[in-house]
Amino acid sequence: MYRLSKLRFGFPVGLFLMLLIDGAISQVFSVHMFRAPTAMVSHLVVLWLVCGAIFEADSSAFEMPLARWAAVAGVIFDLYYTGIFGIYIFIFPVVIYLTRLMVAYIRPNFLSGLLIYFIDITVVEALGYVASRAIHLNDMAGSTFLVNTLGPTLAFNLAMFVLLYFPIRWVYNWLK
């Protein structure tokens, strides 16, 4: 069924747009988002991928290749935004796996989607922090990371989830 739907072409276009919008938000609002010592990181790509997994669970008629698209988004994200190949190419598919695992046990709706997205953003940021610590890109203490990066990033991304959930759901329903 996936092969016959508009979602086959619409999903990658939306993913690419979210990649661009992530960069645009970070560039335009960099003064506000990256004010020392805090940092808010936009993860609209993760929002698009998580919503794909959530809305896929709503209709069991087809299964999208979300892990492949997550890996492709990870490659682009790594090469364009981080400059280090291999961090997000691993993290994004892990997030899809975790989301599908949670959706199997939690009936997807707005509030459970918010909880799933909260967990996913925490996993993305924590794995990114651990990876950058492992390759000596940062020397930030764990408590400093929790307060100055994870907290503001969660606040920003949860607000974006609340604002964009219903428009993204409308786009998915239109593409199906």
TrEMBL record:
Keyword Cell membrane found: yes
Short name of one Pfam family: MreD
Membrane topology of this protein: Multi-pass membrane protein
InterPro entries: Cell_shape_determining_MreD
Subcellular location: Cell membrane
The keyword Cell membrane belongs to this UniProt entry's keyword annotation: yes
Bilayer-spanning residue ranges: 36-57, 69-98, 110-132, 144-168
Main location class: membrane
Keywords noted in UniProt: Cell membrane, Cell shape, Membrane, Transmembrane, Transmembrane helix
Family: Belongs to the MreD family.
Record-given protein name: Rod shape-determining protein MreD
Source species: Levilactobacillus tongjiangensis
Gene from which the chain derives: mreD
